[in-house]
Design goal:
- The protein is mainly β.
- It is built from no helices and 8 strands.
- The chain has a 4-stranded antiparallel beta sheet, with no helix packed on it. It has a 4-stranded mixed beta sheet with strand order 3-2-6-5, with no helix packed on it.
- Strand 2 and strand 3 form a beta hairpin.
- It is globular and about 40 Å long.
């Protein structure tokens, strides 16, 4: 399992978009968050993040994923 960890160090809510599913998750100000996903088996993991004004877009190479915010798994 791969865990990509991030932190919202702003005073505002941040949107996390997980692609290619276009899933949006609101991340509260000051929260730690992560995307958990199984590593690809037949190719390299080329997952990456893009920073936008009030959004972090995470391109996930896993077949599935789950999001954790402040230690709690969020249903996606």
């Amino acid at each position: 399992m791969v865990i990509a960890r991030f932190s919202n160090e702003t005073a505002d809510q941040l949107l996390l978009m997980v692609e290619p599913w276009a899933t949006l998750v609101s991340v509260p100000a000051g929260s730690k968050f992560a995307v958990h996903y199984p590593a690809p088996t037949s190719r390299a993991d080329t997952s990456y993040a893009e920073v936008h004004d009030d959004m972090l877009r995470f391109w996930c190479e896993g077949e599935t994923f789950e999001v954790e915010i402040d230690g709690k798994i969020i249903l996606t």
